[in-house]
Backbone:
């Protein structure tokens, strides 16, 4: 039943009851003025990292009133180096969390009862970036080079690429990389881990001392782990598995997912507004950088053939298989066994679709086209 969409009378009743109770009848992603709610439910969302366009859909849902329209009072908790979102969730300090799938599954194997209820990012955005003179064009070239990664579970795709290339990650000089590109720019790392939406842009926003102009893509070799066949599912909304058996929490999960996905649809259609929103929220990176980031994040979400947030079995199975094959530095694998069948469910997201369709929200983005963003020095 996990992968079947909710059909028929039950879904219709759920959609009508939720819409009638907590939202108006405007068929748009940009307005959602709520009627008075009898009660509001407080919700805490733990992010994986600090405020940036990677999480713009949640900030947009808050700013545009989509959460309030579902009678939710949402507090967004920023992430940090020392914060593991799935652990915060499992410990009961948040109601939902955003985390990469492999990291969350490793925590789940260690005992955290958490469930993927909406797979927002459908594709991996992880890259390896190096300068052309290092001659690194595939993971086979990592041998004898200094390869950066962020650790904290962010290294799994890097190690998966090495494993696929027949290289034991423990034999490579793995360099602990800061969450920026300074190590690459200063020559301390031969190839740096980067996200399409963030660190890659940081290089293109930096000035080449040899030319006095900004670096361009022609100065770089870029390896996409998605294109290399080792891309793993990333940002997903995770829920407390034990609480999902409670009808009230499950109802809250449906409303929360619906409003969050409405926020992502809004950011698909309003790139500049969402970039400004996260910048105004206090992002450390500038407006041009956040506009790039919003555009690149949208590419990881849209188009969504089965619906935004829908968890595709094939992509899930590929991620789980890679995690069981990928060696870590201890010589074991990221996951020691396949995750159990209840590690994800599409029940929540398909129930959320009933609400979104009632609001006229486009959940597929079939006609989505990315924008063209010109970067500036420092991303200002």
Residues:
């Amino acid at each position: 039943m996990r992968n079947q969409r909710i059909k028929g009378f039950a879904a219709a009743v759920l959609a009508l009851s939720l819409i009638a109770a907590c939202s108006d009848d405007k068929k748009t992603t940009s307005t959602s003025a709520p009627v008075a709610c009898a009660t509001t439910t407080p919700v805490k969302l733990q992010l994986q990292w600090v405020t940036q366009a990677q999480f713009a859909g949640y900030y947009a849902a808050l700013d545009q009133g989509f959460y309030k329209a579902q009678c939710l009072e949402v507090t967004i908790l920023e992430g940090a180096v020392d914060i593991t979102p799935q652990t915060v969730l499992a410990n009961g300090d948040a109601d939902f969390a955003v985390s990469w799938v492999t990291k969350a599954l490793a925590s789940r194997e260690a005992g955290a009862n958490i469930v993927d209820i909406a797979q927002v990012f459908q594709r991996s955005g992880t890259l390896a970036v190096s300068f052309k003179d290092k001659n690194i064009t595939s993971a086979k070239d990592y041998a004898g080079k200094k390869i950066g990664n962020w650790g904290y579970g962010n290294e799994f795709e890097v190690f998966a690429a090495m494993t696929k290339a027949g290289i034991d990650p423990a034999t490579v000089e793995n360099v602990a990389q800061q969450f920026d590109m300074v190590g690459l720019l200063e020559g301390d790392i031969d190839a740096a881990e980067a996200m399409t939406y963030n660190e890659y842009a940081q290089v293109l926003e930096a000035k080449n001392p040899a030319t006095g102009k900004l670096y361009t893509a022609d100065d770089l070799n870029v390896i996409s782990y998605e294109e290399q066949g080792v891309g793993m599912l990333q940002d997903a909304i995770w829920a407390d598995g034990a609480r999902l058996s409670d009808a009230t929490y499950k109802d809250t999960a449906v409303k929360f997912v619906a409003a969050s996905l409405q926020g992502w649809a809004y950011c698909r259609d309003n790139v500049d507004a969402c970039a400004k929103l996260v910048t105004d929220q206090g992002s450390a990176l500038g407006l041009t950088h956040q506009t790039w980031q919003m555009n690149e994040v949208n590419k990881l979400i849209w188009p969504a053939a089965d619906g935004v947030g829908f968890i595709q079995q094939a992509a899930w199975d590929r991620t789980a298989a890679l995690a069981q094959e990928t060696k870590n530095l201890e010589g074991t694998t990221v996951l020691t066994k396949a995750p159990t069948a209840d590690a994800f469910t599409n029940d929540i997201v398909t129930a959320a679709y009933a609400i979104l369709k009632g609001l006229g929200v486009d959940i597929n983005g079939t006609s989505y086209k990315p924008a063209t963003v010109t970067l500036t020095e420092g991303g200002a």
